[in-house]
Amino acid sequence: MNHTDTKYLRNHPTVRRILDESPHRPTETPVLEAAWLREIALEAGADDVGCVGLERAEMASQRDDILQAFPYAKTLLSFVCRMNRENLRTPSRSIANLEFHQSADAVNQTGRRIVQTLERHGIRAAHTAVGFPMEADRWPARMWVISHKPVAEAAGLGRMGLHRNIIHPVFGSFILLGTVVLDARIDNDSRPIDYNPCLECKLCVGACPTGAIGMDGHFDFSACYTHNYREFMGGFSDWAETVAASTSASDYRKKIGYAESVSLWQSLSFGANYKAAYCLSVCPAGEDVVRPFLEDRRRFIAEVMRPLQDKSETVYVIAGSDAEDHVRRRFPHKSAKRVRNTLRPTSIRTFLSGLPLVFQRGRASGLHATYHFSFTGEETLGVTVVIRDRTLAVREGLHGRPDFRITADGKTWLGFLAGEVSLFGALLRRKIRFKGPPRLLLAFGRCFPT
Fold it and tell me: Can you say how many angstroms the Cα of residue 77 is from the centroid of all Cα atoms in its chain?
């Protein structure tokens, strides 16, 4: 800023008015009463509230990401808003999705009102979206700024259930979560509840059309993501590629039926729709929810779970996946439609971090093998992958004695996974090399179908 600019700034009416007032002296970080914050949040529309200091151990995995977005962050205010139960329980997805969308809007508006009130009191604060929009430029890596679930657990608003959703001790699974970041400390941190409201009734296991939730607590992320989020992010990209690859309208209709096109139009026009989320619908946990289940379990199952199980619908699956087997075995009246895996890595790092998400333990039955991956090129990295007893372990570095070795140029490997590079051609050009029984390579591929 030159001398003229400085003179103009000093003589600007706003600047003169501020400078004529008593000088502003920076104060220490304010310490707020948690009870006062709770009152603000409840008045803004929240149904329950908790506060967590960012220095808490539970926030260690999120701290760097939060500080990158909000360098002033010191406290996280977590809150829940209830959803209407019967709207989510109906087999009619239009009604259930309307409830999801309206509840998400309510959470975002509540967070905005909390921040407005805090700003009026001179407290620096911000809130993040309950769902979307997210940092789309990061796809397929972590797109969200704050993971609301661990914050809510630390704030005493519930615990993670078998279905991987937070269960509030009173409201049960029928909630959405929000988080507000504050440049202030609090006088009394909330603490996690000392029990899990999950009843382990396994109704979510029985209701899930893809078999994503195992009786033993195992969760198949890929199965849930492929079907329930078909019209979100990756599923939309897959649809767009299908449009681009179609040679004519009739060719497109062979791949995408009329009803699916209409559903996609509806998602684009009114907000992306969940295909199931039945795990929430049938959950009986929570003081406000559990009584009908306790009084007559058979009736609860008949009225709440059976209509979802009996519904004729398309279930989106990856070819050769455990989900495909589950639909055909457990729900023969539902139609399993094969789609491509949309969890496509864009780097070797995302390939490795994504392996646990797409691992199919059913396809790994009987496989006991150690794989060494040596990647060259822009991402030079050695990785050990062990598949044993239907479990997967991924560890950076080359450890132990391998049963199969793969050496690959990183870009070529990613192109092969995307279906853009021929494995045969890559082998001829020695961009990909392997040593070991070919059956182990085929067995590895079955565990991660595309």
Answer: 20
Phi, psi of 160 (to 5 degrees): -70, 130
Stretches in the chain below the pLDDT threshold 70: 1-4, 22-27
Instruction: Let me know whether 150 and 269 are in one domain.
Output: no
pLDDT at 378: 92
8 A C-beta contact, residue 157 and residue 76:
no
Range of the domain at 249: 203-339
pLDDT score at 243: 93
Q: What pLDDT, on a 0 to 100 scale, did the predictor assign at position 292?
A: 97
Task: List CB contacts of 95: < 8 A, sequence separation 6 or more.
Answer: 87
Contact 145, 128 (CB under 8 A): yes
What pLDDT, on a 0 to 100 scale, did the predictor assign at position 142?
Answer: 84
| Greatest Cα-to-Cα distance within the chain, rounded to the nearest angstrom | 82
173 and 222 assigned to the same domain: no
Q: Are 155 and 76 in contact (CB under 8 A)?
A: yes
Give the per-residue pLDDT at 26: 57
Q: For residue 3, is it within any domain? A: no
386-392 own/partner pairs: CB under 8 Å, 24+ apart: 387/444, 387/447, 390/361, 390/362, 390/364, 390/365, 391/361, 391/364, 392/355, 392/356, 392/359, 392/361, 392/364, 392/447
Do both 107 and 124 map to the same domain? Answer: yes
Asked whether residue 127 falls in the same domain as residue 266, the answer is no
Q: 429 in a domain, yes or no?
A: yes
**Which domain-ending residue is among 317, 339, 361?**
339
